[in-house]
Amino acid sequence: MGELERLELNMLAMYCLRVAESAAANSLQAEQASKLKTEWGLLIFSTRPPLSGLDSQEDIEVYGKELKQRMVSFLAACSVSLFLAKEPVTISDSKANHAAAGRGK
After folding, report:
1. Mean pLDDT calculated for residue range 51-74
2. 8: containing domain
3. Residue 101 pLDDT > 60, yes or no?
4. Based on the structure, what is the number of domains in the chain?
5. pLDDT the model gives residue 96
6. Are 15 and 3 a contacting pair, CB within 8 Å?
7. Is residue 78 part of a domain?
8. Are 71 and 34 in contact (CB under 8 A)?
9. How many CA atoms are closer than 13 Å to the CA of 32, on its beta-carbon side?
């Protein structure tokens, strides 16, 4: 878990995305990984308070630390092969892969 704790929140979110998209993940792992990654997106990309109760920058920073710890705990419980087999995809890579998959139909 020590290595995961040293990662930035955005890198943990990318690993969660990898687990969510992994064919090797079970449905519960994929669902939890997707929820964590979505929660990260709300925290990072929202232009207004991302979640109710986060009214100040301090609230947002505390929430971010709590989210990071939940991601670390989740990923530590997953099989390493679900997210460390290769470099994590970026969000843009993932969207490009989904778009490319749709073009072949």
Report:
1. 86
2. 2-88
3. no
4. 1
5. 40
6. no
7. yes
8. no
9. 14
